[in-house]
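Our consortium's second objective concerns turning raw sequence data into structural hypotheses that experimental partners can test. To show how far this objective has progressed, the report includes one record in full. It was chosen at random from the queue rather than selected for favorable results. The single chain below, 99 residues long, was entered without modification.
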Amino acid sequence: MPPKGESIGHAFEDAIKFSLILAHYRSESPGVSFEFYESLQRKKTEDIYKVSATGWKSGNDIGAIGGRLLEWFTPIYLWWTKGDSEKDLLTDPTNIQFP
């Protein structure tokens, strides 16, 4: 995933969730843990990747005017998406609903 400011938070979240899943399914085969983890995180990871990749590519040769527009609209975009980012980053990673 392209690096962004929130990447370390997602890495910690993944580590916490996966360690709890491994502990929960310790008597099962490792495949059970991996399947449950993937079912829990796949959509979120794909959504985050799309946003991250879009932001990562936005600096590609867009010219002076495009760069200036990007600079002006970035604060608006950050304000617009602030609620989703805060909701995501303030979610408790230990709150896992096991079947």
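The partners drew two points from this record. Residues 38 and 45 are 9 Å apart (CA to CA). Helices lie at 7-24, 30-57, 63-89. Both points have been shared with the crystallography group to help prioritize constructs.
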